[in-house]
Design a protein that fits this description.
The protein has 367 residues and is of the alpha/beta class. It contains 13 helices and 12 strands.
């Protein structure tokens, strides 16, 4: 059995996996030019070309793992698929229903093994899809490089909200309207900016599609980081980690995912109620030292449980579990064949192993 590591892009920050995995692994990176869905598909086709029947494909991006499984099913290919941290959302759209169907079939398959970044999210996922799957818990990686080394001036009456995936932009804009004396530094994608620009108030400093350095300057110059979310799925974790690395107190939406990282001692997770957020934000800005202590606790927690070593250890446990399952299936098949052979022999009837019969009939196995 050989191992392949499929990435959805050329971001080398995830290169630590291959070096620490402990088994020979071939990296396959998807192209980045063109529409994302076609780039992902090209990556899937490439990894299927270079792999053979029985090989294991470890997928960095969950939807690419689902694409791999369905491609194997359509082309009658045999591969073991390892999916790192499912990100399926809960939107009430036709597209989400279709995608959920694709995920449900893959996750319920014996040759598809998935992990989640939160135990509660795994339980929620099973309820959403109507399945009973055992997931491996793998926390996202916290990198020391998230700490911003440049000195910035902090506005004590300012709030930061930034990112793209799963943010409740209407909600944070409403909160900003209710707090005209507080500056809101907001960074969002350009398409979101165009959609909401008519709603911005004078106390909102809104930017879009800026560089990483500028993003970190905006975050670090703010006294507080707010991450209102519109999904139970993993969202905002990288910004959460960046905030913790720079000892920025965090207020976020309480979800099955954020509950894995935020506790009463490590931040504030609450429901999306505007009046509640206004009161909590004002309280945090007035008691900055108390909430910084929570940020320090979160940083310590992430350093302990979100290391590269533990991340890779989780992947290795998935590989071992898959190998053990394959060994048990082979053993069971051998036992059944032996019993069937003995039964046929007792009746003086010959039996031919399935693969020999296929050869005599001129049939080929599939790779």
């Amino acid at each position: 059995m050989r191992y392949f590591l499929l990435f959805d892009n050329n971001n080398r920050s995830n290169g630590f996996i291959a070096s620490k995995l402990g088994v020979p692994v071939t990296e396959v990176r998807s192209p980045e030019r063109g529409r994302k869905i076609f780039c992902w598909l090209k990556g899937v086709v490439e990894v299927l070309k270079v792999s053979c029947g029985g090989d294991t494909i470890i997928c960095w991006y969950d939807f690419q793992a689902v694409m791999c499984w369905w491609m194997c099913r359509l082309l009658l290919r045999r591969r073991n698929i390892i999916c790192i941290n499912v990100l399926l959302k809960d939107k009430p759209s036709l597209r989400n229903k279709l995608v959920s169907y694709l995920y449900r079939a893959a996750l319920a398959s014996n040759n598809f093994k998935a992990s989640v970044t939160s135990g509660e999210y795994g339980e929620w996922l099973n309820r959403k899809l109507g399945i009973n799957v055992k997931y491996t818990l793998i926390h996202d990686v916290y990198h020391d490089s998230y700490e911003y080394r440049q000195k910035v001036n902090v506005n004590p009456m300012s709030v930061f909200c930034g990112g793209s995936n799963g943010r409740d932009w209407d909600f944070i804009i409403g909160v900003a309207h209710a707090m005209p004396d507080v500056k809101f530094n907001i960074v969002m994608p350009y398409n979101i900016y165009l959609k909401h620009c008519s709603k911005f108030s004078a106390n909102m400093n809104v930017r879009y599609d800026i560089s990483y350095d500028e993003f970190m300057k905006e975050l670090c110059s703010s006294a507080l980081v707010c991450l209102p979310l519109d999904t139970e799925a993993p969202a905002g974790l990288i910004v959460m980690f960046q905030a913790a690395a720079n000892l920025k107190p965090i207020i976020t939406t309480k979800t099955v995912t954020t509950s894995e990282y935020i506790s009463d001692e490590r931040g504030i997770a609450i429901k999306n109620d505007k009046d509640l957020w206004v009161n909590v934000i004002r309280s945090c800005l007035n008691d900055n030292l108390g909430v910084i202590h929570k940020a320090a606790n979160l940083k310590e927690y992430l350093t302990e449980v979100c290391s590269e070593e533990l991340f890779v250890k989780g992947i290795m446990s998935m590989l071992k579990e898959k190998e053990d399952m394959v060994s048990k299936l082979k053993s069971l098949a051998g036992t059944l064949y032996g019993a069937l052979y003995g039964l046929k022999r007792g009746r003086n009837v010959s039996i031919t192993p399935p693969h020999q019969g296929a050869r005599r009939k001129g049939k080929r196995g599939f790779g």
